[in-house]
Amino acid sequence: MTSESLRPRLQTCLAAARVLAQHDGSSEIQTHHLLQGLRHAGVGAAAMDRLGLTAARLQDSARRLFDTPAPVSTPGDVELSAEATHTIEAARRYAQEEGSAATGTEHLLAALTDDPGSHARRVLNDLAIDAADIKCALQHVLCPPPQRRWPSRGTRCSSVGVSRVVDRDDEGRSAEDSPVEIVAFGPKRPLLRSRWLLVAAALVAVVVAVVVVRLDQRRPFSQVTPPATSPTAPTTQPTTEPTSPPVAVDSPRVTEVGRWLLGVTGDWELFARGPDEVVRIQPALGRITQTRLPALQSSGPVSLIAGTGGVVVRPLDYVPGYIVPDGAPARPLPAGLGQSGEIFPGPDRGHVWVQGAQDGRTLVLVGLDGTRTGPSIRLPATTQWPLMSDGAGYVLVRGVGGDYDARPDGLRRVTRGSVAAVGPTGWLALECDDRARCVWVAIDRATGSRRTLAGPPADPNVPAGAISPDGSVAAVFRQVRGSEPQTVHLVDLASGADYELAVSRDPDVYDTSRLAWSPDSRWLFLVTGKRLVAVDPRTRAVHELGVDLPPIEQVTVRR
To answer: Which among 102, 150, 170, 349 is least buried, having the fewest CB atoms inside 10 angstroms?
Structure first.
């Protein structure tokens, strides 16, 4: 099959499959590589999203099922296996049968599903996904419930087969600028019956929406007294809610870059906040989503937390905050999240810690819908503000005698000095003796073991840095002079070697959300001079993302 007969997004997926095969050390591209490659773009990726078929789940299953051979001699000799070639030919036939001039990701996903003995089907079977699940997911993506118009005559959607008139095809072309396209897999039901099914589905959706709105209007209003607006000491605030300005109703603007960003293939996302918008960056899909954000009525610190289904933007001051759902306009935070005070990531993506008592000394675990769902953390009276995340879903408290990890079951001292960087595996602390001679100390979170490192210690008067998820490197800040930008350094946690990067950040005592690591520790993302850049920790080279972004103030990662 020539590349001209493949849509660009399918070509991207095939290129991804080749890279995955090379990474596995395989001499051939197998059908399970094709299946994993489809995660990168197109209708196939959208259908897999509906089924929860993430890149990590597919990769884990393939590793369980198939032995990894010895690495091949050169990347160039990785070719399609006979099974993969047969599957791509089957996808081409699907495209021809429905009258399409080019083969798309939906055709390949259907073909992978139809071969019961293939590597791809073995992976799907291992994940309890059958052919009907795949075709039903394709149905929902290709022929969703009618929101704009009825399907044209001859177009059918059923749980057995999938047909559609393409409103927006695999390359983003609308029906107005491309020919009508029919996709069909399997037998079809009569048109009249399908229309009545769609009518029934639409009526059910309307009834459910009305009930949800009525219930939401009857929800009691939270009267939690907010804590301090100043990070130095919490004080009582009035119990009236801050008034939210009208929320922009502009639909998010999506830009398809058409290539991987930074060569990333992992299933994670980057969120960045500018003065008036939130940017969602999906590197493996080459997709940028920009959502308008109402102007924040505060010039102070702002919390940016990426959770399940969206990102929370909440100022420290007693002013409105917002949630930006994935693919939807921003809206005011629910009452349980909309007060002032500090907010921190919880132990999972669906929860956050918020200050919930009048004196500000209690943190409560709250869902993203504003409902209190779990235990609380009581802070000691000697707590010094501001607090910060401990890097693992709880809170780090500075008090008399050092820094403490605060959890619902109590406090545990991390260091008698001060924590300079946090991460999921542990902390990097600055500790000094009686004569003020200071050293780095790497502290393991799981075992509590401590290791003194060589090299110059950090400045204790800068925001805490971040340790890479694999625990190998810490990114820290140094202040040369009070009014000058802070320098950024990478510290090797095995040797203590310290490397200054060719970037800087503006001084900001309380802002710790100017940097974030990718989950695989491959990239460090940093905000410098309102720009978002990526640092390769292996070479310490600074890279642009290669896409146009607005001015950026904060960054965070969602795994």
So the answer is: 150
